[in-house]
Design goal:
Structural class: alpha+beta
Number of strands: 12
Number of domains: 2
Distance between the termini: 62 Å
Shape: globular
Strand content: 25-35%
Order of helices and strands: EEHEEEEEEEEEE
Length: 195
């Protein structure tokens, strides 16, 4: 067991403390040059005592962040989706399809504020569902997750959820549904549906 003694710098001059190493904030610990098995074990234990809680805190934060931001691809890999609860007041689902054969009228796509898509944006590839709102065909500005490498595949019949939104992988594509409102979008290579 390691005992850590906190010594006020003004109460004990540095010259009176032997065999210790001064740390920031006026803390001291055994000096690393002192020999002896017990002292080495104390140093290792002290390092573990300092590092372990930090790792636990970091691990808990990472797990929480992962739950609040999820990315996955359809079983075929042609559709990529993100469930995001970090960048909006309520969770959102965004899916983008790589190749599709369905036609998309120009007036269908809109930006996140409800306005028309600017000239040059690709239509019919991005679908968005904000929790509590109706889904829409979103303006496509760039590839979703471009440069991010391969995404974890969501196997057929599997689903991911965030808040009231659940996205599931089916043989004909991906469906994302808001359980609170019943709104959904479904996208596959051949068609899409908003509801």
């Amino acid at each position: 067991m390691v005992k850590i003694t906190i010594v006020a710098r003004r109460a004990v001059p540095d010259a009176m403390i032997t065999g210790v190493q001064k740390l920031p904030f006026g803390l001291f610990m055994p000096h690393p040059n002192i020999a002896g098995r017990e002292h080495r074990m104390n140093r290792i234990s002290a390092a573990v005592a300092v590092v372990a809680p930090a790792l636990l805190l970091f691990g808990a934060a990472s797990a929480h962040a992962d739950d609040n931001y999820q990315q996955f691809a359809s079983a075929s890999g042609d559709i990529r989706c993100i469930l995001n609860g970090e960048d909006a007041p309520l969770p959102i689902a965004v899916c983008q399809i790589g190749d599709h054969t369905y036609p998309v009228p120009q007036a269908v796509g809109r930006d996140k504020n409800g306005g028309p898509c600017p000239p040059g944006s690709d239509l019919g590839r991005d679908f968005r569902l904000d929790q509590g709102q109706a889904p829409y065909v979103a303006c496509t500005y760039s590839a979703l997750g471009s440069g991010a490498g391969s995404w974890p595949a969501l196997g057929l019949g599997q689903s991911r959820s965030l808040g009231a939104i659940t996205c599931s992988s089916q043989p004909d594509g991906v469906t994302c549904t808001d359980a609170g409102t019943g709104h959904f979008f479904r996208v596959s290579r051949e068609s899409y549906q908003l509801g």
